[in-house]
Amino acid sequence: MAKIDEVKEQVIIGKTKIVPGLVQEALNEGSAAKDILQAMIDGMKIVGDRFSAGEIYVPEMLIAAKAMSKGVEVLKPMLSAEASTSLGTCIIGTVEGDLHDIGKNLVNMMIGSAGFDMVDLGVDQAPNKFIEAIKNNKNVKLVACSALLTTTLPALKKTVDAIKETGLSGFKIIVGGAPVTQKFADEIGADGYAPDAGAAAEKAKSIIAA
Ligand code: B12
Predict the structure, then answer these.
(1) Which atom of ligand 1 is nearest the CA belonging to 174?
(2) What is the mean pLDDT of residues 66-72?
(3) Model pTM?
(4) Domain harbouring 63, CATH code
């Protein structure tokens, strides 16, 4: 089995200690960092499907997530390059009620490497936490909100509404996460949407220039 396939298999079964070494071996074997990342994302899709089918439970999802996070750490230097000029500050977080952060962390890394100074609020963040961060940080140009559950899509809307109601300006809001679509982003009045971390970085740059 190619190392990259082993990475995927070991992420699925949550082998936190083994995954980082395998990721390094896959790199040594000549696999591209973005392909290894995609293999891990594909692995998480299988984990999600097994959860839906009732074959595994929350603890198994959690250890798979930990294994993937450890693998991403190895890839980080290859996926993100330091930009020399700053495009401003980006506040990023997962919305209230939602504990998923792997996707948000990848978006953080990619938008950061596009040249933004990142302020990561973490998971389960109420609208006022985003607002406080916008007020307390200098030169905020972008706010990025993540939601992974259909049940937290309303919290995404609540967050965008609350930020807009403050009347604060000078920044754009982008939203994303598996259940989020361009249509939903438009409906809730977000300025932008992107389906994955690479596209999020492109969108971040184009949206603040618009
Ligand atoms: C790992 C995981 C967990 C872990 C999370 C650990 C962690 N540190 O993140 C734990 C165990 C905590 C968990 C808990 C739950 N989970 Co869960 N989880 C997953 C799983 C398997 C993987 C998620 C993941 O990391 N994917 C990989 C990343 C890279 O992809 P991503 O998050 O989609 O991110 C990409 C894009 O969406 C986008 N993106 C993400 N954020 C943003 C933000 C912006 C601004 C932009 C532009 C783009 C963007 O870019 C990212 C990178 O390319 C998914 C299945 C799946 N395949 O998604 C289920 C899944 C999301 N979970 C699900 C469920 C049901 C739950 C629970 C309710 C289970 C329960 N009964 O308790 C709880 C809810 C807890 C809570 N309140 O949040 C369901 C959601 C169903 C739904 N439609 O709502 C899923 C789809 C599984 C399933 N098939 O049923 N989960």
Answers:
(1) 45
(2) 96
(3) 0.96
(4) 1.10.1240.10
